[in-house]
Amino acid sequence: MASMTGSRRTVEFRCKACGKVFATEDMLEAHKRMEHSKESHPPAGVG
Ligand SMILES: [Zn+2]
User: What is the pTM of this model?
Assistant: First the structure.
């Protein structure tokens, strides 16, 4: 019987723009680049 161990807590990375939650920071960063790259302040040095 599997019981929940309360010692480890799952870290969630939530997108501040839309509120989506991702398991890893890499997924969150990729999401932000894909979903929120446009219509946002353009990053300096691109072009
Ligand atoms: Zn988002």
Answer: 0.58
